[in-house]
Amino acid sequence: MFLRNAWYVAAWKDEVVEGALFARTLLEEPVVLFRQSSGAVAALEDRCRHRFAPLSRGRLEGDRLRCMYHGLVYDASGACVEIPGQDHISARACVRSYPIVERDRYVWIWMGDTALANPDLIPDCHWQDDPAWRCKPGYKHFAADYRLIVDNLLDFSHLSFVHASTLGGSNSMATLRPRIETFDWGLRITRLYPSDVMPPYAAALASYSSPVDRWQIYDWHIAGNVLSMDSGFARAGAGALEGKRPDDAFQFHSIQALTPETASTTHYFWTYPHNFALDDPSVTDMLANGISNAFEEDRVMIMAQQDVLNRSPDRTMFNIGADAAPMQVRARLEQLLAAEAAGEG
Ligand code: FES
Ligand SMILES: [Fe+2]
Predict the structure, then answer these.
(1) Measured from the CB, is residue 50 less than 6 Å from ligand 1?
(2) Distance (Å) from CA 150 to ligand 2 centroid
(3) What would the DSSP string read from start to end of 147-203?
(4) What topology does CATH give the domain 123-341?
(5) pLDDT tens by residue, 178-201
(6) Does ligand 1 have an atom closer than 6 angstroms to the CB of 12?
(7) Looking at 101-105, 161-165, 215-219, which range is the least confident one?
(8) Has domain 7-115 been given CATH number 3.40.640.10?
(9) For residue 47, pLDDT beyond 80
C-alpha cells in the first residue's frame, strides 16, 4: 500500500518545538517527535514497549522521554535507560527510532530499512527556504487514499472544471496533452499554454491583462510523493515559453508532499513560493489564501470520490487520454511495492 523505503515529510519544522512532544500517525504507525538540546529532531515509535501507552503522553526529561504510565525512560535512539525499581534493563525493552533529516523547512522521516536511509535521496525543495522566494507553509488533512491525490496532481485537466474560478481560467487546461518525460525518480510533466487567460487567483497582481503565456513544468518524485513545480505567466509573446522569463513575468515554484497517514487518510504539506513582491507580506498571504481555497476544491472532490469508491469496492475505473501520467505512476508504484515486498527495495 505504501512504499516504506522513501523519505516522507513528517512535519513542518515549526511544528516540532523545543520542550514539547508532537504526535502524528505516518504510514499507519504512531510516531512521536521532539527536539533534543542540540536542536536535532528525534522520532520514536509512539508506543511504550511496556504496556503500549502513547509516549506522546509522556514527559521530556532533557533529551530523554519518560512514559507517564509506569515511568520507563527512553533515550533519543529508542533504548530504554530506566525502569523504576529494577536494575536490569533488557535490550529488548526498546522502541523503534526513525532517521530524521531537517531540510528546506521540512522534517523528513525514513520509515523503512534504516540501512537504506540516504539523505541524498531527498528531493530538492529549497524554494521553500530561500531568501529569493517567499511562501507560507500550508497543511491539509484528506480523508482519502493518497493515490487519489497522486492521480489528481498528475492530471491538470481537472483545472478547467474543479478550479474554473481559482487556478484554471480556460478550457485549454482540459484539452492540452502534456509532454511527459520518464526518469528513475519519477516523471517530468511540461504543460505550455500560449496566449491564454490569466489565472484568476493572480489577476489582481498583474499590471497587464490576458492574453498571457502560461506554463506548468513539474517533477513528480514517486518515492515520498513530492511535486516540485515551476509555473507562472507572462505577457503573451514575450518569450516565456521559450525559456526567457521577462522581468514582469509572475513566477512560482510550488512544492507539494503527500504522506499517507493511514490507508484511507493523507497528510498534505504544500507551499506556493513566489519570487516577486518580496517585501510585501500581504501578497504572500493573498497567494497562500487563494491557493488554499483552490486545494480545498480538490479536497472536497477527492473526499467525495473516496466516499463513492468505498461504496463500490468491486468496480474498476475507466481511463481516458488525460490519464497517461497517473497510469504510468500507478504502474511504477506497483512495481516498487512488489520489489519492496520481495525484499529488493
Ligand atoms: S506503559 Fe509505559 S511504562 Fe508502562
Ligand atoms: Fe487541483
Answers:
(1) yes
(2) 10
(3) HHHHHHHH-GGGGGTTTTTTT--STHHHH---EEEE-SSEEEEEEEEEEEPPPGGGT
(4) Naphthalene 1,2-dioxygenase Alpha Subunit; Chain A, domain 1 (3.90.380)
(5) 999 999 999 999 999 999 999 888
(6) no
(7) 161-165
(8) no
(9) yes
